[in-house]
Amino acid sequence: MKKKNVLNLIKYYSEKNDTAFRNEAYEIAKYFDEINNYQLSEYIMGLLSNTNTFSPQVDDSKSHYFRKVETSSESLPLPEEIKNDVLGIVNAVGHNVGINKFLFQGPPGTGKTESVKQIARILDRELFAVDFNQVIDSKLGQTGKNIAELFDEIQEVPNPEKVVVLFDEIDILAVDRINSNDLREMGRATSSVLKGLDSINNKVIIIATTNLFNAFDKALIRRFDSVVDYGRYSREDLVEIAEIILNELLPKFKSAGRNMRLFKKIIGTMDNIPYPGDLKNMIKTSLAFSNPNSEFDYLIRLYKSALGEQKLDIIDLHAKGFTLRELELLTGVSKSQISREIKEISANE
């Protein structure tokens, strides 16, 4: 915390500038949280709460259409191209030239929603997600009215420069209006979204995500200032990300041993390496279900899960380039016995 934070706090108090006072006090609390002084941070936030000097930018308790989402400070490994696009969004918002609507498209598990959480944290904004369960209505015409009300609420946000609104999986509202398989009601809903985006306050950051970009309404795509493609993962990217994920998880499992070379080799044997979301689940599950008395049991489980095999075949593993030591770790068979088996089979071929 710097001296200017304290001076600003006094200044805003004397000027009776309640909004600036709250924001400055929040920055001080955030500072103590970042240096792990959680008790003092929580005490400050408690004082702010008790004196009503701090309030959220959107009151989701009074809104049918929003829910508060916590931002994230966890590491988010992304390919360099996507990372540069995300940083570009942060820069664009910082320039304050009215660029505020972004669309993240790509397969599930590629980090779209997590990126939004990171962007909100970096920009020091509160994040609110649209609750489509409340927006979509079975009554004819009601969905369009709900969408209009949703955008009215966004327009009335007290401090728009402190808010990010997430339309997660906006596909449900953004289907192609001229698709013959589309219901007329949803076509009208998409038209309501178009109107809402056209009139939105450009100080509010709008980020939408979609897994169905090819079916997206083209007119709606044009409403976004930028579209970021999250499908740009190479095999090398995914192997590197798998290593990052394992390094983050290993400290939580004290009995698990570290053999990054073998781990990367197992990941590399997969024909189609999953995207980070599924990849993390696979690695975490292998660790969680592993035998605490066997430090490399998680690697055996990971190999079986990755390759869909229930039994490890020594000859097959050897053919895939695994060393005798690696085969010993994966199968529990000694290197000398493995070597004999390989020689015997080779001699009989």
UniProtKB/TrEMBL annotation:
<comment type="similarity">
    <text>Belongs to the AAA ATPase family.</text>
</comment>
<feature type="domain" description="AAA+ ATPase">
    <location>
        <begin position="98"/>
        <end position="234"/>
    </location>
</feature>
<keyword id="KW-0067">ATP-binding</keyword>
<keyword id="KW-0547">Nucleotide-binding</keyword>
<dbReference type="InterPro" id="IPR050221">
    <property type="entry name" value="26S_Proteasome_ATPase"/>
</dbReference>
<protein>
    <submittedName>
        <fullName>Cdc6-like AAA superfamily ATPase</fullName>
    </submittedName>
</protein>
<dbReference type="Pfam" id="PF00004">
    <property type="entry name" value="AAA"/>
</dbReference>
<dbReference type="InterPro" id="IPR027417">
    <property type="entry name" value="P-loop_NTPase"/>
</dbReference>
<dbReference type="InterPro" id="IPR001270">
    <property type="entry name" value="ClpA/B"/>
</dbReference>
<dbReference type="InterPro" id="IPR003959">
    <property type="entry name" value="ATPase_AAA_core"/>
</dbReference>
<dbReference type="InterPro" id="IPR003593">
    <property type="entry name" value="AAA+_ATPase"/>
</dbReference>
